[in-house]
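Q: My labmate handed me this sequence with no annotations at all. I'd like to see what the chain might look like in three dimensions before we decide whether it's worth expressing. Could you predict it?
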Amino acid sequence: MQKSLKVYGRSQSFFTRKVMGYLSYKTIPWLHRRDTSAPALKEAGWPGGIPAVVLPDGQVIWDSTSVILHLETKHPDRSILPPCKTAAFLSFLIEDYNDEWLYRPAVAWRWFDRDNALQAGWDLAREYSFFTPGVGGKIRAAIEARVGRSCAAFGLPAPLLPRWIDEDLGPWIAALSTYVATRRFLFGARPALADFALFGANAAHFIGDISCRAYLDAQGPEIVAYTHRLQEPEFDTFGDWAPIEPNAEALVALLKPLGLHYLPWVTAACEKGSAPIFPGGEPVAVSPFTRRSRGLLLGRYAQLRNPQLDEILAAAGLLRFFSDDLNQALPLPDPHQLPQPPVNRPFPADAQPAR
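A: Here is what I predict for the chain of 355 residues:
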């Protein structure tokens, strides 16, 4: 009998659900573990960003993207990596946007909206109380206060949440909703890495939290249906990758929101150390985690660059964010090696905004 992996993390976590969705799709046996104080994690040097995954042989790995890429080397069937270079890079790009950017409004919307905060706080308190005995209401309040303090550091103090939703998240939801209305997944009839990133974000936050779900039901119901396609993949069938369309108009429309704030900000912040997200706003510092992720994405671009990709990026207004910064590309890690990066969380919970 095949031994199971153990996934340490919360059910309400963006990145834990991303890995869980991938494991279910690949039919890799796994067990959910909530107590991240397990001695094996500490002994392995795990830096604290969930999820951490314990392999059947007891080895511990972490960082959701790195975990998935490592497991792909061991479980190549039903690959989530498109063979087309253009699709492969765009999958990494959308996954990066999801993991480095969309988590910001997801976390802030959860904790700065009362309906979301009460629901998610109680859900998390219930999970914490499995291994940390205490009064549920006190646990919930402590979680809300601790996580809420981190939001200003990544550009989302409470007063800015409506602006983020209207000017940044809203255009992305509109573009994604239109795109997935006529497609099963981003690049064909089977999910890519980016699909699992979006699944984790949606399942944990955007269709999981009360006010977020109400917004999607009104503004992007196609995204709800798209997310549900990966909820129970054992009952579904999957096809092949689709070729990139010659004019790629749909892809171009999907990619344009990435150039509204994320790519301008991360490009400027990696150069200067910090940059405002909105014109005239407070500067937001780039973390070591985000800086490394930016360097790895540029490394992917250097590896996968081709004329078709550049044409699509140029049409979406994004090419300069890659072609002009190739000197910042980092070497890509070998996915066959155990992924144990020393930094795997964007900010500590009590981080303060840079000045």
